[in-house]
Amino acid sequence: MADSDNNGSEIVLLKSEIEAAAARVAERALNETWTGASGFLGNVFGGLVGDRVKQWRTRNLVDTLVKTKDHLERKGVNIDAAKSLPMGELLSIFEGASRTDDVDLASMWAALLSNSMNPQQTDTTDPSFVRFLGELSGLDARILHYLKTYDDLSDQRNTKKSLVLKPNGLPMSDKEKAQSEVVAKIDQITKEYDAKMRSAREEITSNYSAEKIWYSVSNLLRMGLISNGSGGYDGDTLMYATLRRDRVELDTSGLRNELNWLWEKIDLTSEDNRPLPSMWFSPTSSEGPQYSNYALTGLAERFLKACS
Questions:
Q1: What is the pTM of this model?
Q2: Which of 4, 10, 66, 149 lies 20 to 30 angstroms, CA to CA, from 114?
């Protein structure tokens, strides 16, 4: 039957078990109850796809635009002085921003829009960043920010340690005392930053299961935003031959390790066949300092800069 409002086609559902099952799923998803086929038809196809989703997306977009204004003001840019954007780029950002109500992702959309509109911003926003941001989950974003925090804390820790040590090693005068003081200061700095890193890590581990973190890591690897630094050919011999009295034995472990590493880089989608390293490892014990098995790629660093 023709729709007089939009000249489109009215959606007609079969009055069957399929309709009832779909209605039940929609009821649970929205925590509402409909009575009969007409209730399902009017509320889902009339309300959900029309008014409900429109209102939800409009609210998300409005929230993002408010955050964009705040972001520009923090950068010292009056909204009247902000740049306009090409319609295609703007609509892509609006589309993505309207589809999430995750706090972290909404902030990233606002920052991306703000930086794109900032006339003081010298870097050009890569068009692919809109696509990357649209493919991230909230956990993906949190892991990226964790790795950025981890890098920043590592740099700060190493800088503080270098200030404690003298250019040519320990002071020569009263060497034993100086050495003891330096070791104590280094230990204090290490503990201070281990605690900060542990706190940043627990923001993720306390809210997400290991399985969810694992899938998120897999997604970020496929997108090229993080990398696992282990492996890679270092120039060593890949195979060793040992001559026995009656045979030649080949040690191919180096070659196998290298092929496994190449497989990880090429076929990042084979999650079931290639268990990924966990996010963190501890060189001593689970109670000791833990380090990240992954690092941001250069692309991820530029992406986070554009979305911060």
A1: 0.70
A2: 149
Q: pLDDT band at residue 103, thresholds of 50, 70 and 90?
A: very high
Distance CA 221, CA 156 (A): 26
Closest to 113 (Cα-Cα) out of 62, 57, 56, 164: 62
50's tokens:
């029309």
How many Å apart are CA 189 and CA 54, to the nearest integer? 52
Q: What's the token pair of residue 164?
A: 């404690």
Question: What gap in Å lies between CA 265 and CA 294, rounded to an integer?
Answer: 13
Structure tokens that stand for 54 in this block: 């429109």
| Sequence-ordered strand ranges (E) for 131-282 | 226-228, 240-243, 248-251, 280-281
User: In this structure, are residues 112 and 133 in contact, taking their beta carbons and an 8 Å threshold?
Assistant: yes
The token pair that represents 71 in the structure block? 């972001």
In whole angstroms, give the CA distance from residue 190 to residue 25.
52
Helix (H, G, I), strand (E, B) or coil at 280: strand
Element spanning 17, H or E: helix 17-30
